[in-house]
Every structure is written in structure tokens, then in C-alpha cells.
Design goal:
This protein is an alpha/beta fold. The protein is 44% helix and 12% strand. The chain has an 8-stranded parallel sheet. The longest helix is centred in the first third of the chain and has 16 residues, at 33-48.
Length: 302
């Protein structure tokens, strides 16, 4: 595939400065403000911390913490030629690199189904024990329950992507809902796998998950791509992590993770899974590999 059609500027360091406001594309809102804050905050917090307290993790420990963050819209946002082929090819490369997998949701339904089918094919051809975290958009309950049923056979975790509600165009197109704590509790009762609330970023989100008490609280601002409060996921993890830990079994985080040092800092702040998307996509699209070796061996960006 020709790299000229990728919606990524192949910046040497992916800090949100080359794709300003590019939606569709790899950018975010408001001149990528939160995208850029996500990236810069990890370095700022690292420089402010007592380095002797931050654990230096082995490569095996980093592998156990790393997970691919859910991304759909490979054609619109990444510039891939075909939505279906992207998921299988890219997922195989991620899996071979030792990165845990996630699939995302979208409209039309094929975006979710392509991810599900790719995992099913990988179970036949690559790893019969493969399972993934599946993140579903906050559709009305009947549609959401159907999606839960679709993903259950291949899921290690199932979650609701609550910050997708802030994508106004999608919310209006497919009637996304702002989910309540009582709804979250009802979903959890029907699942045999851990339930994740993804997109916790505002004070309102925090109060909701404190009441709902999901298995996993996933701090995210959709890569800085949704219209929400100004800030970074790194800072929220540091400030709210100790409180949120009282209301869940695990905390996950994404946003601006660019190197091993960032993973170590996120783990120090209480994250048990650290999710990465743009750097892995960029390396795969331009170089044909995931870039995990560089991630593990260098403090620099992938």
C-alpha cells in the first residue's frame, strides 16, 4: 500500500503537532489540545517525580501491561484501503509482537463485526486461545445487548465506551446514550467476563463509576478526539487514581503513551493495563512492523 494515502504525517515524534484538527484522520479537536496534553503530561510528571520511586520494569512486565487501544474507522481515519483487511493483518502483527488486543465498535455494524471475525480467524490460524477486550459504543439497550452477545465468545473483557457519547455526529446518527450507574450495574450482572467503563475523564464520569463500581475503570479522553474538559489522562490518573481504585478491581489508561518510561509511570500511578494506538498504527503502516523492540529498548518515542 502507498504510504501517501495514510492519514498520518509520519512525524518523527508523535506528539499531536502534525495532524491538527484532522478529523477524519489521526488528529483531534481544538488544535489537538488534549491530544498534545496527553503526550506532554507524561514527560512533565516524570520530571516532577522522585525517580527512585518509579519501578524499572522488565520487558516481560511491560508486555503484560501493554494493550492495543481500540480503534475503528481504518479507512476514514487511517487511510487504509479496506476496513476488513486492516483488522486481521494489523492484529496478527500486534499479537506476534506480544501486545494484548482490543477491538472497537462503530457504525455501520461491520466495523465491530470485522474485528470480531478477525479474532475468530486468528483463533483458527494463529492462537486458539486468543481473547480480546471488546469496547462497545453506548447504544440504546436493545442494540447494546445484541453487541454484547456478538462479542462474548471472543472477549476477555467487555466494556462501554462512554466518551463516544461526546462525538456529536455519531451520537445523533445512531442515538448514543449517556449511560447511568444503574444501567452499568445491570450490564455487569449479565456478563461472565470483567466489565470495563472506558472514557472516564470528567468529574461527572468519576461520580458515575463510583456508584456503578465496574470491574475496570478505564481513564481515556478518546485520544483527545472528543469535546470534553481540557486536560490529560496522565494527570487524571495521578490525581484520581487513588480514589478510583477503591471502586474497581483495576484501572486502565491510554493517551500519549510513547515509551517504556511512560508505561512505568502509569503503572506507578496504579494502572494495570496501559493502552497504545497511534504509535503502533504509524509504525505498522509505514514500516510494516509494530516497533515493540524500540519501545522496550529506548526512552524515546516509538
Amino acid at each position: 500500500m502507498e504510504t501517501s494515502i495514510f492519514r498520518c504525517h509520519n512525524c518523527k515524534v508523535c506528539l499531536g503537532t502534525g495532524c491538527l484538527n484532522e478529523l477524519p484522520g489521526m488528529g483531534g479537536l481544538n488544535n489537538n489540545e488534549n491530544f498534545r496534553l496527553n503526550c506532554s503530561s507524561w514527560e512533565r510528571l516524570y520530571n516532577e517525580e522522585d525517580k527512585s520511586k518509579i519501578p524499572q520494569l522488565s520487558n516481560e512486565e511491560i508486555h503484560s501491561l501493554l494493550r492495543y487501544a481500540p480503534v475503528t474507522g481504518a479507512v476514514e481515519n487511517i487511510g487504509w484501503e479496506d476496513e476488513e483487511s486492516f483488522y486481521y493483518d494489523f492484529f496478527v502483527a500486534l499479537h506476534k509482537s506480544g501486545v494484548n488486543l482490543s477491538i472497537g465498535d462503530g457504525t455501520p455494524d461491520s466495523k465491530l463485526l470485522y474485528g470480531i471475525n478477525s479474532v475468530k480467524t486468528m483463533r483458527k490460524e494463529v492462537d486458539k486461545n486468543l481473547s480480546v477486550a471488546a469496547f462497545l459504543k453506548p447504544y440504546p439497550d436493545e442494540n447494546l445487548h445484541n453487541r454484547i452477545a456478538w462479542t462474548m465468545p471472543i472477549a476477555s473483557h467487555i466494556g462501554i465506551d462512554i466518551d463516544a457519547y461526546n462525538i456529536v455526529t455519531m451520537r445523533n446518527k445512531v442515538q448514543l446514550e449517556k449511560k447511568t450507574a444503574s444501567q452499568i450495574k445491570s450490564y455487569m450482572k449479565k456478563l461472565l467476563v470483567p466489565f470495563v467503563v472506558k472514557g472516564v475523564f470528567t468529574r461527572e464520569d468519576i461520580e458515575m463509576v463510583k456508584e456503578a463500581r465496574p470491574d475496570v475503570i478505564y481513564i481515556s479522553n478518546h485520544g483527545g478526539r472528543v469535546d470534553t474538559r481540557r486536560g490529560s489522562t496522565a494527570l487524571l490518573l495521578k490525581e484520581a487514581g487513588p480514589i478510583l481504585k477503591k471502586y474497581c478491581n483495576e484501572i486502565w489508561v491510554d493517551g500519549g503513551i510513547r515509551c517504556k518510561r511512560d508505561v512505568e509511570l502509569a503503572h506507578y500511578y496504579g494502572a494495570s493495563q496501559v493502552l497504545v494506538a497511534r504509535p503502533f498504527i504509524k509504525n505498522y503502516c509505514y514500516n510494516g512492523y509494530i516497533g515493540i523492540d524500540e519501545f522496550l529498548s529506548s526512552p524515546a518515542e516509538l
